[in-house]
Amino acid sequence: MIDLDAIVRRFGTTDVLQGISLRVATGGFTALLGPSGCGKSTLLRIIAGLDRPTSGAVRFDGRDVSDETPAARNVAMVFQAYALYPHLTVAQNIALPLAMRGMTRTERSPLGALLSGARAKRAAQAKAVRLVAEMLEIGGLLSRKPAELSGGQKQRVALARALVRDPSVFLLDEPLSNLDANLRVQMRAEIIALHRKTGGTFVHVTHDQTEAMGMADQVAVMLQGRIAQLGSPRDLYERPATRDVAAFVGSHPINLVPGAVFGLPGEVGLRPEHLTPGKGIEARLVYIEYQGAEVLLDVVMPDGTRLRAVAPGNWDAPAPGALVHLCHAPENLHRFDASGARFTA
Amino acid sequence: MTRDLTRVLTRAFALAALILGAVLVLSPFLWMLALSLKAPDEIFTPNIDLIPNSLHWENYAAAFGRANLLRSLWNGAIVCAGILVLQTIFAVPCAFALAQRRFAGRGVVFGLVLAGLLVPFHVTAIPIFLGLAQVRMLDSYTALIAPFAASVFGIFLFRQAFAALPTEVFEAARVDGLSEPAIVWRIAFPLALPAATAFALFSIVAHWNDLFWPLIATSNPALATPPRAILYFRDAESGAEVGALMAAAVVVVAPMVALFLVAQRRFVQGLAAGGLKG
Amino acid sequence: MTRRRETLTTLVLVGPATLAMTMLIFVPVVVVAGLSFTDYQFGAHSLNFVGLDNYRTLFTDPQARRAVTNTLLYAAVVIPGTCTLGLLVALGLHSLAVRAPRAAAVLRAAYFLPVAATLVAMAVAWQMLLHPNLGLVNQMLAAAGLPGQRWLSDRGLVLYTLAVIGIWQSLGYAMVLFLAGLAAIPPQLYDAAEVDGAGEGWDRFWTVTWPMLGPTTLFVLVITATGAFRAFETVATLTKGGPAFASDVLVYAMYREGFVYFKAGYSAAITMVFFVLTLAVTVLKFRVLENRVHYR
Description:
Number of strands of chain A: 17
Mean pLDDT of chain A: 87
Helix content of chain B: over 70%
Strand content of chain B: under 5%
Structural class of chain A: alpha+beta
Number of strands of chain B: 0
Oligomer: heterotrimer
Low-confidence stretches of chain B: none
Number of helices of chain A: 10
Strand order of the largest sheet of chain A: 6-7-8-3-9-10
Largest sheet of chain B: none
Order of helices and strands of chain B: HHHHHHHHHHHHHHH
Mean pLDDT of chain B: 86
Low-confidence stretches of chain A: none
Largest sheet of chain A: 6 strands, mixed
């Protein structure tokens, strides 16, 4: 279990993190989701021990690790650009954390091969490396150098290097952002499977909400150095805590309009996919975009408010200028007060 | 806690070592400067005083008066400027053609440039000396300047700079009716100014500081370049004028040091790129 | 018509430089190679083909051989000295630059200054620094109760003295190249090493810094080597190859034999030996340059 307690990180005069408190359960998969510059990578580096908070504490299973090195915390990390050692083979890359931990400097040196103790340790390491390489299906690449690998293969090696040491937590820093779209979907599934198989604690930093929603059981939406909402993916989508979270989460940008349009006070958010053709409000169609599975519609209400709606792909769209009828379920109207917080009756 | 302490101590030690090293590296400069301002009697009393008792500026007057120093500085300036202008005139059009034009023999010419990079100037000294002797041109500014006209390094550097420029710029200029030489000098050259500056600094430093070729090509003291003049002075000086000799050395070194301090970044770039030269 | 004009334009652009390159570089190389097999003397009206005689003298005559062995010995001191010190200074300045960029910039300028300074003038300054009675060095030694040395006239010492000056002069150059190499190491690798338990001191250096500097180091080695083979200014200013050829080096011998004694043929042979030596490391350098990105 990881506890972050009122973490503040200041660079110069700007507070990049403004008092973050967060608990990550053992065996859980937590995503830190936010736009670039929101502080999510800084937070991950503080969990890793690569950076230190200006104030606040980091605890692993109740133990304060704020002053410990990453190695002492026994964290594993997968970096955005893989950060493989270019001069080492795949096998050596994966074995490095084991060697650094389990062997003395003499044993690690080329002379170490003369020591029987070191030979035994090396054999054990080689076995561990093979095991983890098999699991990630890179057993055939062990003698290659990183320069000879594709992006996806490098990603697997980076994962193997993280897995091999049985860490207290896996930290993933935008691990999929350097991969092409198809590979990203495939690696997403593999990381989820890895999480199930190992039962480890995962913290995953990403700016991609489909990644966060699809992989994590807990998502922390970070906006401008604060956690704007912490909850399950469904929570974020169905009950956004603030208008900013509502605007950030969801594949179609949410309609945010004055509540008066729907006869409500304050501001109202309605996701386009929750506004569909049917018996309800009447509006003038101004724009249509056919996308195959669905049709995007822009309509203008009698009071001039523009809304986006989504219709199924097989919907017979009238010409722009026609009047259309749209309906929505009342529970899908998200109400926000003047400060932007969710309004709960 | 101890980790932080060791780190602080290591850093303090490293900083102290760096400063000590820098002082050692600077010590010839400091000693030279100190001696150049000391009176003869102070120079010849063994002591480690770096600061002169009184500033003996007469050394500088003596240096300028005696060593024909002013003349050699002028020679140095003429030679450096002459070489740089000549090198630029030869190198820039050739580099432009190599980078932005397709023509038969381009590979051959570029091959010559690369091969030329492998040849240190020293290797060509004897035949060039013979050639200059044939045409009775030794002991002249021409002898000091002409042998450096073809800078393969310059061609190489400018070619890199021109190759990095978008071809569209030159096609637009051609469409606008500019002649090729006009494109080279009025469009390409100004666009490659950073490379030109780096090259100029490299060339100036190399030839201001060169002793090898002036020693061979000239015997007339009136044509002495600054390093050559220092040697003339040193060889004629019998010990009474150490202060003046140091003053002359300061005067000769000063322009290069000033150039370096003013244009550090380009300077380092130019000299670092010079590593390519054989 | 246009075709011919195009060719003419190309000729105008490329012709002068190509002609100059040929006349000033390639023809002289061929001539010097040819002369090295003759007994030609400057000013003479005839010459004889002497085969490998000049080379034989250079490699067998004990006195003449000093130029070759001294050059190699000089290089053997200057190359490791320059590279090691250049790397150490670069490492120090690189980490200092994070905390105190101003101080690092000042120190960097100080270390680089000898590269820019006129070596002949600085050699004269060194001469005073190393003066047996009045020089700062011997005075310091005396103050510490140590005997002074005749740095520039002791046969056993002089070449090492020149080598130290050589290191002093080229150290800043190596430093600058190493600094560029250090700046190019991706910071993520250091993060990865820290997570993997190689975050401090030597572990960090051997896991990331040294391997990543590999290509730079080779490059610096080769550049320092060509520079060391070319040593001339300090020898000409301070020792003229003496005492008793104890500090004779190839380029100085080439100058002396050719332009003081006018033995052009013999001097050409020395030139060729120097050329081959330089060529060997320069070719190596180009191969290194080509492979500079071999990690990626």
